[in-house]
Structure formats: structure tokens, C-alpha cells
Hints:
The chain has helices at residues 12-23, 43-46, 60-66, 86-100, 122-134, 155-161, 178-190, 209-220, 231-240, 248-259, 269-274, 281-287, 289-295; strands at residues 4-6, 32-36, 51-54, 72-75, 105-110, 139-144, 163-166, 172-173, 197-201, 207-208, 225-228. It is α/β, with parallel strands linked by helices. A seven-stranded parallel β-sheet has the order 3-2-1-4-5-6-9, with helices on both faces. It has a two-stranded parallel sheet with strand order 7-11. Strand 1 (4-6), helix 1 and strand 2 (32-36) form a beta-alpha-beta unit.
Amino acid sequence: MSKILVTGASGHLGRLVIKHLLETEKVPASDVVAGTRDPGKLADLAARAVEVRAVDFDAADMLAGAFAGIDRVLVISTDALDVPGKRVTQHKAAIAAAAAAGVKRIFYTSMPAPETSAVTFAWEHRESEEAVKATGVPYTIFRDGWYMQNLFHSLPRAVETGQWYTSAGAGKTAHISRDDTARAIAAGLKSEEGEGRTYTLTGDTPRTNAEIAELVSKVTGKPVAVVDLTDEQLAGGMKAAGVPEFAVPTLVSFDRNTREGHIAMATEDFGRLTGRKPQSLEDFLAENKAVLLGGGH
């Protein structure tokens, strides 16, 4: 079996990918390597005989050693959004080091339709994908759809107040759970197929925010009305609510991206990779009723 390294292994997605490698795909722990900036955070994985390595995309001089002896590496995109372009530098350093270390296949987590997306950081994923392809190393790209968990940023407050402020209009999103995303990625990491492929991981039903609000109302028993705003109004509301200045344009671009139809796709790639159907939004919301009612998550 190939030696698989997952970067960002202490993050939400990285941990779930490793969980599915071990428990769903039955990859031996001895074939899994967890990469993180802080190995101390992964003592639980080390206790399960998973090798833990220090992997810091900002320390290019140590990356070659970090990837030594690895057959397949999953480069999980970083969360460095405060400085535009920082992620590209980080990703390119990791990708170049993986290629130099002789990794046989590079996997990268991207976003849907980065070529046309209105999201402010789409260009970072576009350039990172190009960097993967430019190495000449066999690759697979996972374009991760919008997580169902992202709805927790706005829905609990919307349930509390009865109003969901958005500029997404009639745009649709086929949300997918983070766990299902990780399940598909783990399947792809183990598979001998998919070389040169780009998978877009989504749920199976695109919905407008109004349709999502209706589902939320059914689950919680509380009315939730969508309040349609312009991008400028949405930005103003965020600033008034204390959202950090640097984050506002990106958050607004999510709604614009939805409104313009760039995230409306519903693909069958999850099923191709896993042989199963993704969790439905209805089931996810029902499972997380307490979170929607302000119970935290």
C-alpha cells in the first residue's frame, strides 16, 4: 500500500480525512502520515500508530524532509485569508517540495469553478491548481463544495431573530457536509483511479436560501424569513455587527457568487468516489436542531 500524507491534519477536514482513511477505507495506520504545524495536537493519532510529522508550509526549507518517503500527499488548502496571496505562496511551497521529494501523486483541495467564481480568493485556488499541474507529477484535484456547516455562521442568528439577511437572491447551492467531503477525499486517496481528474464534491440538490429557510423552519418550528439585500447593504450590516474589515468583502462575495450561479452545480462525483449518496440537507439540519436553536456546535 502507498504511504499517504495528509497536511493540515489537525484541522476539521484533515482530521476527518484521516478518520475515513482508517475507519472507512481500512488503510493501515502504518500507511497514514498526519502532517501538522503543531504535532502536539495529534497525540491521539500518534496513539493509534499514525505517524505524525511537522509540516509547515511557511518553512520551505523543512518541507522536503517532511515529504520524504511519501507516495501520495493531500495538500489541504490553508486558512490564511487575512493576507491576499499568502495561500498561493504556501501552497506552491508545499507542491514544489512534494514534487522534489519524489511524491508519486499530488492531491489538492480546491473550490468549485475557480475559473469563473466571484469569490475573492478564487484566484488563489486557480493558481494553486495550475502549480500542481505544472509539476508534471500525476495529480487529482478535489473541488470541495460549500459545507453544510457553513450555514451555522448565519442560521442560528436567523432562527433567533426570524430574519436571514442575504444578497444571494435566487441563486442556489447544493451543500455537502464536511464529513461527506472527507469521506470522498479518503476514497480518492486510496483509489488507483482518478489520475488527472478533477472532482467537484457537492450535495445532490441545489436550493435557494429561501428554500433552505423553509427547511430550517420545519426543523426548528420557528419562522425564518429571507431578507434580500444588495451587496452594499449586506456589507454595511456586517460592518455594523463588528465583522473584521478584511473579512467583509470575502463574506459578501460568497453571496454574490451564489446569486450569479457559480456554486449551483450538483455533481455525481461524491457517488463516483464512494458508491453512496451524500447526506441530505434535511437530515443534516434535523441532526443539528440544537445548533440551529443556539446550542453551539
